[in-house]
Each structure stands twice: as structure tokens, then as C-alpha cells.
Amino acid sequence: MVKVTVCGAAGGIGQPLSLLLKLNPQVSHLSLFDIVNAHGVAADLSHICTPAVVTGHQPANKEDSSAITEALAGTDVVIIPAGVPRKPGMTRADLFNINASIVRDLVANVGKTAPNAAILIISNPVNATVAIAAEVLKKLGVFNPRKLFGVTTLDSVRAETFLGELTGQSPSAIRGHLSVIGGHSGDTIVPLINVDSTISSAVSQWSPSQYQAYVKRVQFGGDEVVKAKNGAGSATLSMAYAGYRFAETVLNSLSDPSKPVADSTPVPDSSYVYLPGLPGGEEFSKKYVNGVTFFSVPVLLQNGEISSFINPFEKYKITSEEANLTEVALDGLQKSIDQGTTFVQGSRL
Ligand code: NAD
Ligand code: LMR
């Protein structure tokens, strides 16, 4: 019996993500919250012949807090794709002014109503919104760093797809044989493709410019979609797939709490996490990532929370190019983290 709540369920990501969740037999209750059209999406999905009961929750007006409380009551997993997407010419950081308060207020409600839930943050800029979520939960005295996940899976999905295109391999054979670490925007995204021989032998013939073009495409894959949609938003369908892929790992870990799960691949998907709150995370942060507090690393889950993470700098064969990419990523990350943290410190919850 697992209750999953999607906040922002009527949006471009929220709808297909909710559809995928409705198909998962582990979900017994799918709770859909949005400020618009939540009842319509819930009615539509509720006709699908799978076990999950679907409920829709939408506030009657700006002062109505009962809808979010009902949506979250007793939930095990909360997924947040609420907020505005980019338009061409914008960076993810440009979304901060609007999305920061949306994420702050939703997470405050999670902290008050469902403090034990696993929280998956999709809303951008992820590099800052996850720090916002952590700070809100800290302020409320309910922060469990093992249960707060910044969803960076789309970067891995892109890294697998683009590498498959270039090497002629099936992307599904590549899954679990590369890793993407760092953050979720531009050059904070660091693909690692020398994880094992499955890929490193296939890319060993690349010229430096081929490698650089590949890295750039992974780092700026989001821009490719924003440009192609030409003002109609950013990635939604690929993000729904990616968000579901990570949510499925969380759900699998809940279905058999006795054993740790990755995602049945040698290299588990990464998530953007609060390092000092994880076993060995503080030392990792100081020794490998210049003390940044949030960083995306491969995670292993047990019973809906992180049991451990993989230190990519020890476990995988990091090349000098990948070490350089990491240095660049670290420069951009702490600024975004501080922006998120400071925003909440000046806020009333
Ligand atoms: P969208 O505009 O299509 O949908 C957003 C939904 O959020 C809308 O239905 C809106 O009504 C709802 N919403 C707004 N404020 C809300 C609130 N206070 N409570 C509940 N719902 C609220 O946008 P989208 O394309 O679905 O993108 C959503 C977010 O996800 C954006 O910030 C986007 O940048 C981000 N995103 C992240 C990734 C990632 O890899 N993490 C990938 C793609 C998009
Ligand atoms: C993505 O990577 O596609 C998302 O973060 C959306 C965006 O703004 O690019």
C-alpha cells in the first residue's frame, strides 16, 4: 500500500508522469494536486483499469489550504514538478523568482502534513530548489536528508540516448554503464563515460572534438528541447519518463524494505542530495567536491530512503577531462545552493 502525491499534476510533466504512476501496481493511491485542472486529470486517469485509486485536489481559492493537506495526508512519496518552465533565451536560474516560493510553500506543507515522506524535486532550478526544500524541512525540524532527492535522471537518460546514437549501441545496454554527477544545469552537469569497459572501449576512438560535442549535448540537452518547442515550454515527456524511472526505484525500495535496491544496473541512477546528511557524505564533500553541500551522486535506496551513495571519484576511472569538468561544475553549484538557502532563511513558513 503506497500513496504517491504529485504536486503540479496537471502540467506538462505532471500529466504523463501521473499516467506512468497509475500504471505501477505498487501504487495503491495516486493523489494529484494542482492549482488548476487537478479534478479533470484525476477523473481521466481514474478510468484506467489498474489498482491505484486516483484522487484530485485543487484549492478553491488562494486562502484554501485544505486541498494540499488532503492531497498529502498519509503520503509515502511526494513528487514535485510544480512551477514554470523555461522559454527560449532563459536559463534555469531565471525561473528562481517564481519557482522558489512555489517549492518552498509546497515543501512546507509536506513537512507539516507528511514529514516522513520521500520528496522528489523536479522543479527548476534544481540546483537551488533542492536547497530550498532542505532549508524548509530543517526550519520545521523534520529534515531527513536520506529522503530528499533532486531529480537529475533526465541527464542520465540523455547521456545514454546520445551515446547510443553515436556508438550504435542500444541505449538500454548503456544504462548502468555510465554515470552523470554534479548538478542539473549546463556545465554543472558532468557525464562520466569511463565507468567500465562497455563504453570506454566504444568511445576510445573518439577525437577530442567528438568527446567535447558529446559532453556539450548532454549538458545542454534541455536547451535543445526549449528551442524546438519555441516558447511552448521545456522537456515534459522525456522528463516524465525520467521522473518515473527514479520514482520506480523509490517504489521498488518500499516494496521490499529488507534489501537495498539500485535499479538492477551496475551503476545506479544519481540524485542531487544533501551530502553532509548521508553516511560518509561530509568527508566526501570536503575531500572531493570543495565542500559543496549538494551534489548529484549515484544512490542506493532502502525502504524509501538513501542507504548509501557511491563515490564516483574512487569507484570509477575518472579521466583528466572529467576531473576538469567537475572543477567547472563546482564553481557554479555553491552559488545556487546559497541562493536557495538564503531565500528560505528570510522567509516565514
Ligand atoms: P507546466 O507549466 O506545464 O506545469 C507546471 C504545473 O505546475 C502547472 O499545471 C501549474 O498549474 C502547476 N503549479 C504552479 N504552481 C503550483 C502550485 N503552487 N502548486 C501546485 N501546482 C502548481 O511546466 P512543466 O513543463 O511541467 O515543468 C515544471 C517544472 O519542471 C519547471 O520548473 C521545469 O523547468 C522543470 N523541469 C525539470 C526537469 C528536471 O530534469 N528536473 C526537466 C524538465 C522540466
Ligand atoms: C531539462 O533539462 O530539460 C529541464 O531542466 C528543463 C529545462 O529548462 O531545460
Automatic annotation (TrEMBL):
Active site feature: 184
Keywords assigned by UniProt, alphabetized: NAD, Oxidoreductase, Tricarboxylic acid cycle
UniProt GO MF annotations: L-malate dehydrogenase (NAD+) activity; mRNA binding
EC class (word): oxidoreductase
Lactate/malate dehydrogenase C-terminal domain location: 152-343
E.C. designation(s): 1.1.1.37
PROSITE patterns for this protein: MDH (PS00068)
Residues annotated to bind substrate: 86, 92, 124, 158
Catalytic activities: (S)-malate + NAD(+) = oxaloacetate + NADH + H(+)
GO cellular component, one term: peroxisomal matrix
Coiled-coil segments: none
Superkingdom of origin: Eukaryota
Start and end residues of each Lactate/malate dehydrogenase N-terminal domain: 2-150
Binding, NAD(+): 8-14, 34, 99, 122-124, 239
GO biological process, alphabetically ordered: fatty acid beta-oxidation; malate metabolic process; NADH regeneration; tricarboxylic acid cycle
Family statement: Belongs to the LDH/MDH superfamily. MDH type 1 family.
Description of how the protein assembles with itself and partners: Homodimer.
Protein's name according to its UniProt entry: Malate dehydrogenase
Organism: Meyerozyma guilliermondii (strain ATCC 6260 / CBS 566 / DSM 6381 / JCM 1539 / NBRC 10279 / NRRL Y-324)
